[in-house]
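FW: tagging you since you asked about this chain on Friday. Here's the raw sequence from the shared folder, copied in full. Didn't touch anything.
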Amino acid sequence: MTGLRSLFRLVALCAFAASASAQVDVKLQVERKSFVAGESVPVTVTVTNQSGQDLVFQGTRGGAWIDFTVTSGRGVPMTPANAAFGSMKVPLGQAMARTFDLRQLFSLTQMGNYSVYAVIRLPGQTREGFMSNRVSFNLDTAAPYWTQRVGLPGKSGQTRDFKVLNYNNGKRSLLYAQVVDVRTGSALQTHSLGEYLSFSKPSVTVDNRQTMHVLYMTAPTVWTHARVSPTGALLGGEYHRGTGGGAPLLVTSRDGIVQVGNSIPYDPRAEAQARTQVRKASDRPAFLFH
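HL: got it, structure written out here
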């Protein structure tokens, strides 16, 4: 009896899907049009449900509820990696969005032009589904600014190449940190460190734990200190301002510990909050004395 109910439910879903295509809208957006080869390529899929009932998209034994098709500029579709995406419920009359990283699904390491679209499916749907619009993006290469080869801590014979890359998109100078597996030659991670002011050269060094430190100017009086592990993890970053003696700099102690010297820690959020408080105080009416 349970199997019969499941069959009826499956037939109902298939019939519903056949009639609901005009009421389920799928829109795909890419974060930006240009990326450096190897970095994350986030895309956001928004599903709007005007079908007349709540919808639940979830994977089955037959496959995932969402598929992406990425095609190179030569028209050749790329092969995706297997991945699980959990589930997504879209209530009637609402729109729900989910962001995916194409870099985790496809080998996006070669420069060139690409296009992508998504197809989402309800349980029971196989070939048919709800297709999104197609968007284009391109992968570019970045110029190497600094590189150093290091051994992987605790793993004899395994080495990594630390790289700092400089990329100009025609409007801004951007800095990237990259970790490459020397054995395979593939980039494990490529992180965008953001915009920097190119008239001040970034400083880069490696500490005694094989962590890469990058110090670069992000505003006329502000520097950012970013750290990247040999496994490719971005360990965070802090803001600094120079003292009266000049600009901040990376200082390595005798035991290999790296710190930012000649600096004052800077918190832009605290400064913004302080400015807000000052404005609120200035909004108060002036006192009249008699």
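FW: The chain has a mean pLDDT of 86.
HL: agreed, and The longest helix spans residues 2-20.
FW: great, closing this out.
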